[in-house]
Amino acid sequence: MSKTIAINAGSSSLKWQLYQMPEEKVLAQGIIERIGLKDSISTVKFDGNKEEEISDIPNHTEAVKILLNDLIHFNIISSYDEITGVGHRIVAGGEYFKESVLVNDQVVEQVEELSALAPLHNPGAVAGIRAFRNLLPDITSVCVFDTSFHTTMEKHTYLYPIPQKYYTDYKIRKYGAHGTSHKYVAQEAAKMLNRPLEELKLITAHIGNGVSITANRYGKSVDTSMGFTPLAGPMMGTRSGDIDPAIIPYIIANDPEMKDAADVVNMLNKKSGLGGVSGISSDMRDIEAGLEAGNQDAILAYEIFVDRIKKFIGQYFAVLNGADALVFTAGMGENAPLMRQDVIAGLSWFGIEIDPEKNVFGYRGDISTPDSKVKVLVISTDEELCIARDVERLRHKN
Known about the structure:
The chain is α/β, with parallel strands linked by helices. It contains 14 helices and 14 strands. A hairpin with a 3-residue loop joins strand 9 and strand 10. The protein is globular and about 60 Å long. Homodimer. Pathway: Metabolic intermediate biosynthesis; acetyl-CoA biosynthesis; acetyl-CoA from acetate: step 1/2.
């Protein structure tokens, strides 16, 4: 019996989940927010309890110390010796990492080098890795990469139509993201359909604050909507998704608030999407409230959002030459039945039909009608469990 911690570290946050393995039982979970800022918040949930503490947490090392101290303080574990492994979610693995790997000095350096591909995520992940290595140096430490699942894409799919020197010299290509989620829900879809994954063609739609769509043929990613960075693809909560690249120099030339490309990219990442168009919120619940109130900006934001998701799903029907099932997952994918209904309504030509009695908030499973030519599934993603499984696999391999 072992205990494994799955870690998802951002620039100012650290989410975690502690599992008892191999039973895959969640013992506790929590999040530490506002790291490096005043009034940091540490929240721990266990056995139906929720504990919250506000203090100043200057860096990720101190955050990890608090996490570990809480495990002892709340009697979740009696000794650090019970912790046998830690798995770190890494957004960008570039071309270095085709699968999850045991952490060593070279791996840490490479993850740090790849920060340019995920500047909001990789630096925080490196800080988390170093903190655990300092405090628990003898446990199995593993990096699990969002990009590794997409390394099965073929060259004609992942290359951009620009001079090839930008790939050979600068490694500019499509990398994708959310791979751990897409891999997990594809496996769960195969179980739900009672068919081997190796026989299925699936379109998996991870629709949260970040949005990515993946074409999965026989268990492998053959195309995905996120690109060189997680900014590409459909419209998202605060990200624009795909735009004409010529817009960037045009904005710099005409908007005095935008000094350079970095300013524009920051706007496209943090001030666009549902939040930018609506002027209300990046949260679909607030957008839906705006729809009910007749707010025209909320209506427009919602219509663009549905339009872009529908288009990516449509093109992946072409990539796969048909699909057995479409899977919705993540925050909005799992909890926004109106959005699912309106996306599917625009795909009726493919013979997709959903049952309105099943397409409701809280329902998980097959929401399509018996006559639907393509099954529509709602599956809760579990990236943390995938991370814990990889830690266990590599711990026994080591």
